[in-house]
Amino acid sequence: MRYTITPTPRFRALCPDFVGAAITATVQNSPSSPALWQEIEAFAQQLRQQFTPDSLKLRPGIAATRNAYKAAGKDPSRYRPACEQLARRVLQGKPLYRVDTLVDTVNLASLFSGYSTAALDADKLPHPDIELDFGHAGEPYEGIGRGPLNIENLPVYRDQTGPFATPTSDSTRTMLSPDTCRLLVLINGYDGNSQQLDETVRLTERLLTQYAQASEVEHTTF
Predict the structure, then answer these.
(1) pLDDT of 132-170, one tens digit each?
(2) What is the pTM of this model?
(3) In terms of CB atoms within 10 Å, which end of the chain has fewer, N or C?
(4) Is 166 helix (H, G, I), strand (E, B) or coil?
């Protein structure tokens, strides 16, 4: 399915520099491979050489995501963006979670870019029209590993059924499983760096092809 993702006027007003990408692919999920984890560990080592837990907030993609939260009235330290959560684990010397090939691949793309990157089961998203907006007061949302999440004023992707992805946490409604065969990846570049976005797309597509036997790979920007 080809998705049409449309930022709302409010989103564009508060996040004027945002650039995003959507990748769709047919994939084969599996336990994460040693070769993929070698790539993850190699990049984690580079990250440790570049940043500390304190300086991480200055990384452009993370800083811009935090600023988007503040602009909308959300505390980025209480609702920490997933890209920052992941990188902080690396810099604090904590092991990264090994989940499966698809999740680990998209986590590597997030570490590479500093962008929050959603990995979604496309078969659970039957509606082609998606809007990028902010969460509403009282809007129900179940975050993966977080339980009910207050998404009011969080950037959020929403289809006809409701919200399903934020930069803080994807939703349980669209979470991946060992049986996922159609993947949608959303890459969120709040810093407006089109070159970084393009490099992240190319890395993600290469990893999916190499480790998840991806076919029918397509991407669009928005």
Answers:
(1) 999 999 999 999 999 999 999 999 999 999 999 999 999
(2) 0.96
(3) N
(4) coil
| Tokens of residue 176, six digits | 């991946």
Q: What is the pLDDT of residues 27-81, one digit of tens each?
A: 999 998 999 999 999 999 999 999 999 999 999 999 999 999 999 999 999 999 9
Spatial distance between the Cα atoms of 189 and 87, rounded to a whole number of angstroms:
16
Q: If we measure between CA atoms, which residue out of 107, 113, 108, 17 comes closest to residue 67?
A: 17
- Residues 139/158, Cβ–Cβ less than 8 Å: no
Q: How many CA atoms lie within 13 A of 62 on its CB side?
A: 24
CA distances from 199 to 25, 52, 214 (A): 18, 24, 18
CATH of the domain at 152: 3.50.40.10
Over residues 72-118, the pLDDT tens digits come to 999 999 999 999 999 999 999 998 889 999 999 999 999 999 999 99
Q: Which residues, listed in sequence order, are joined to residue 157 by a DSSP beta bridge?
A: 132, 165
Residues composing the chain: 222
CB 76 within 8 A of CB 70: yes
Distance, in Å, from the CA atom of 22 to the CA atom of 7, rounded to the nearest integer, reads 13
Residue 78, domain extent: 4-221
Q: How many domains does the chain have?
A: 1
Structure tokens at 9: 């006027």
DSSP run (H or E) holding 182: strand 182-189
- In the sheet with 215-221, reading across from the earlier edge strand, the strands are 117-121, 182-189, 19-26, 215-221
